[in-house]
Amino acid sequence: MSLDNFYKLGGLAILSTMGACSSVTEEKPLNIIYIMTDDHTRQAMGCYGYDYANTPNLDRIANEGVIFSNSYVANSLSGPSRACMLTGKHSHANGFTNNINSHFDSSQQTFPKLMQKAGYQTAVIGKWHLHTAPTGFDHWEILNGQGEYYNPMFITNGDTSLCDGYVTNIITDKSIDWLEKNKDNQKPFCLLVHHKAIHRNWMADTSDLKAYEDVVFPLPENFYDTYEGRVAAKEQEMDIKTNDMDLIYDLKMYRPGLESRLRQNYITDDSKHGLYGDMNEAQRKAWDAHYTPIINEFYSANLKGNELSEWKYQRYMRDYMKTVKSLDDNVGRLLNYLEENNLLENTLIVYTSDQGFYMGEHGWFDKRFMYDESFSTPLIMRMPKGYERRGDIRDLVQNIDYAPTFLDIAGADIPEDIQGISILPILKDSNKKIERNALYYHFYEYPAEHAVKKHYGIYDGRYKLIHFYDDIDVWELYDRDIDPKEMTNVYNNPEYQEIIIELKNELKKLQIEYNDPILEKYPL
Ligand code: SGN
Ligand code: CA
């Protein structure tokens, strides 16, 4: 029975006259909770094999469902990723290519609008970052741009309000409130819980400041990468070892009167708009109690060279992981609410991030590159009743696949112009495979912060071919079977010339299929 007919016939009223039987349960459409964090990467999740990460609630999602080991984004940046996710289309097709001068045309087709048509109630709570107001939602409450960690501002229907507290707790409270208010609504729901955490500058909740302080994180083996044979990698500005990572803003080593601070926006003179300035007195007190001894020790140690770089890396990891802790606790809170309200059985819970992130690999923080750590994104799903698939899924999936998957779950038609593929069939049947040979990627935001050059590329599960263009014209090829860390560009290696021809043909096919106008500028 289609959902429309289900409601026309009186929805749940029919169920009650039919009594409790399994066929009726199957008719009831699945709810969807789509949790998306910001800059949360696989290297900060226990379920992805990183034992230093204590993430029991995220691990629970993976253990009671599936974990995708080949999940990627189409453009590794917040706004563009969100636009890909909402539309099921690559950036050139949805029009939102970069955070700086793109505005999301909210009159275009999106999956929440189509879900509404299919009979779902829809809501988004948290980070939005698309510069235009959300459309297609029965309820929306969003942060202002990147949002604030402490006492953040929320916008809803043109109204703004300041909320006391820590952003991850507040987004979860608001999400649970919305579920609670709508629990008698007979329609299935699709709730998007979009966290600000773990975005730079990784400010933890005051209750979590002590977490991870005793952990010494393993230094990535390519922390001191010299970027030989990789021009764009050499010219980036996202290096932990340099001033790209700021001691005050990023690592909180502020001292009153310190002249050399590179960024003004951690602490402002009027203490109103800075990140530290956003805190109330009690929050600042807890913050200072934690950081002051670390600050004192740091300045008296007067570290230099590699010692300083490695100290920065450890502080970065600790602050980031503390911020993850609150996220994981809050995911647990949401899971408990669903469990207590008998919603787990009939709800698909999806957990992902807007992209991956560097945790010191190549010496970096941030994202943007098509290299593995930022091209990939975590994707785990807790399976509802009747979905038997469990464990690791190795199919190549991308964030343009979420929209068609959700529409498929809703029983709605998937419009022809959607470029992603529904992954619902592989969730139901482990013998099925996603029909896709390779993934396409395109990053546009240059010149810009972190100085990552424009590039597009193709990845087929083994080879990754990338073209950096605009102010340069440089190709890179990685054979990930023998070089998983992507340290050796083999584009000019004679052994790979036939592979390059094949990959360029595939790349051209994808650019034609997706209709990316870049092909006219750089014909293949
Ligand atoms: C801010 C950050 C950058 C980050 C972008 C994009 N700088 O500009 O480090 O790359 O956001 O991130 S900050 O000084 O403001 O922290 S995104 O996830 O929103 O795309
Ligand atoms: Ca992000």
Oligomer: single chain
Report mean pLDDT, rounded to a whole number: 92
Task: Domain count, please report it.
Answer: 3
Shape: globular
Distance between the termini: 47 Å
Helical content class: 25-40%
Beta strand %: 5-15%
Major sheet: order of its strands? 7-6-5-4-8-1-9-10-2-11
Please mark out the parts with pLDDT under 50 across 5 or more consecutive residues, or reply none: 1-25
Number of strands: 16
Can you identify the CATH superfamily of the largest domain? Alkaline Phosphatase, subunit A
Key words describing this protein structure:
524 residues; alpha/beta; Alkaline Phosphatase, subunit A; Arylsulfatase, C-terminal domain; four-stranded antiparallel β-sheet; globular; disordered N terminus; binds 2-deoxy-6-O-sulfo-2-(sulfoamino)-alpha-D-glucopyranose; binds calcium ion
Folded structure, characterized:
The protein is an alpha/beta fold and 524 residues long. The protein has three domains: 29-202 and 324-436, Alkaline Phosphatase, subunit A; 206-317, no CATH class; 441-521, 2-Layer Sandwich (Arylsulfatase, C-terminal domain). Helix content is 31%, strand content 15%. It has 16 helices and 16 strands. The chain has a ten-stranded mixed beta sheet, with helices on both faces. Helix 7 runs parallel beside helix 13 and helix 8 runs parallel beside helix 11 (305-340). The chain is globular. Calcium ion is lined by residues 38-39, 78, 199, 354-355. 2-deoxy-6-O-sulfo-2-(sulfoamino)-alpha-D-glucopyranose binds next to loops.
